C-alpha cells in the first residue's frame, strides 16, 4: 500500500493522500489533506480500485474532479452538462 500511497500523492500534488487500514470488507478510507493539514476530501475505496490500474486511474480522475469542485473551480452542473453532451454525441455519432 505504501507504493499506492506514493502514486496517489504524486498524482494529487499539492494534496497529501492517506489510506487507512483495511476494514473487514477490505475497504479503506482515503483522505486528502491540504498544505495546512486540513481534510479536503474523504472517500471509501475498495481493494479493487487500488489494485486494478484502470480502476485506480478512474479513482484519481474522480478525485481531480472532486478537488476542482471543492476548490470552487468547477460546478457540479457543468459536469452534468458535459456528461449529457458526451452521451448525446455518442448517440448520434
Structural class by SSE content = alpha+beta
The secondary-structure element order is HEEEHHH
Helical amount? 40-55%
Q: Could you say how many structural domains there are in total?
A: 1
Radius of gyration (CA) equals 15 Å
Compute the number of strand runs.
3
Topology:
Blueprint (H helix, E strand, L loop, with lengths): L1 H10 L4 E4 L8 E6 L5 E7 L1 H5 L1 H18 L5 H17 L1
Description:
By secondary structure, the protein is α+β, with helices and mostly antiparallel strands. The chain has one domain. The protein contains 4 helices and 3 strands; from the N terminus they run H-E-E-E-H-H-H. The protein has a 3-stranded antiparallel β-sheet. Strand 1 and strand 2 form a beta hairpin. The longest helix has 18 residues. The radius of gyration is 15 Å and the shape is globular. The mean pLDDT is 87.
Brief overview:
Helices cover 54% and strands 18% of the residues. The protein is α+β, with helices and mostly antiparallel strands. The protein has one domain.
Key traits:
single chain; 93 residues; alpha+beta; 3-stranded antiparallel sheet; 4 helices; 3 strands
Amino acid at each position: 500500500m505504501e507504493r499506492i500511497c506514493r502514486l496517489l500523492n504524486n498524482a494529487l500534488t499539492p494534496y497529501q493522500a492517506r489510506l487507512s487500514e483495511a476494514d473487514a470488507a477490505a475497504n479503506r478510507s482515503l483522505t486528502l489533506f491540504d498544505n495546512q493539514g486540513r481534510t479536503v476530501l474523504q472517500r471509501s475505496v475498495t481493494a479493487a480500485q487500488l489494485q486494478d490500474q484502470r480502476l485506480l486511474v478512474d479513482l484519481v480522475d474522480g478525485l481531480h474532479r472532486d478537488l476542482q469542485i471543492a476548490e470552487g473551480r468547477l460546478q457540479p452542473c457543468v459536469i452534468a452538462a458535459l456528461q449529457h453532451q458526451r452521451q448525446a454525441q455518442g448517440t448520434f455519432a
